[in-house]
């Protein structure tokens, strides 16, 4: 029969809490008691369980991974998948395991994220942004549970967030087009109530106006970040003349959908219309033509999220926010022949 911490405590004549403190080297315990407990452990070959190790430290070494709201990212979005994979490796190296939550109801009692965190005694949570964030996410953010958000602004007493600088995303695209004498530009954003999409849209319009460039209401379209919505948005843009010289889609998947729509209409990319996406997913390198994009530093975002959460859990830092600079990557879909050569990346 497998021994429990209660069995060891009974054999040593102490409480289970004392055994846990001996295992975890915590608390003020006499050397005589420590020796007695260790002798029982050695003689029985007892291997402490996860719960026994966490009993005294009050830490589970478990992190909750939450795909919040009406999430388009959950399990099938390349950008968020890459960020989460980096986070998993980094947080694992810091000694944590991950428990994945969905936004489905936890139980018949309809408990929320905070109740789940308490149920599983989580040390902290990573929150991946979605649209139409539910009240349960806000409640968790405003609790004392350490939280780090990716692409979601958190302002709770023990919360931080890390995201790409979304103003600079659109600024980089518009500036590049302006410097290459492309002045008529369409925009394909995410859902109209998406915070991230609206930040990029506002920056896009601001910079278009700054440089005296042109966009039109018919050229400002919205999708859901996925390919089919980009295809449909591009077709709506193509319904009316004149057509733009370039299209900026705020996700690579929507940009790939737009590229498909242009091909079906026999419109040449980049000769007639240029396309730039955002995220720099792997598929960008292999589309035809290869897709220009704004690279979000997935490695840096994932690493920062892990270390920021670890520091919050251990009380090493005050809650903060970090904006990561994007990088414009020009490929064939936005090649501008100025007498030079194009280098694929």
Automatic annotation (TrEMBL):
Every HTH lacI-type domain range: 3-57
Keyword Nucleus attributed: no
Residues annotated as domain HTH cro/C1-type: 2-47
InterPro entries with a match to the protein in the record: Cro/C1-type_HTH (IPR001387), HTH_LacI (IPR000843), LacI/GalR-like_sensor (IPR046335), Lambda_DNA-bd_dom_sf (IPR010982), Peripla_BP_I (IPR028082)
Name of one Pfam family that matches: Peripla_BP_3
GO molecular function, one term: DNA binding
Keyword set, alphabetical order: DNA-binding, Transcription, Transcription regulation
Keyword Zinc: no
Name of protein: LacI family DNA-binding transcriptional regulator
Top-level taxonomy: Bacteria, Bacillati, Bacillota, Bacilli, Bacillales
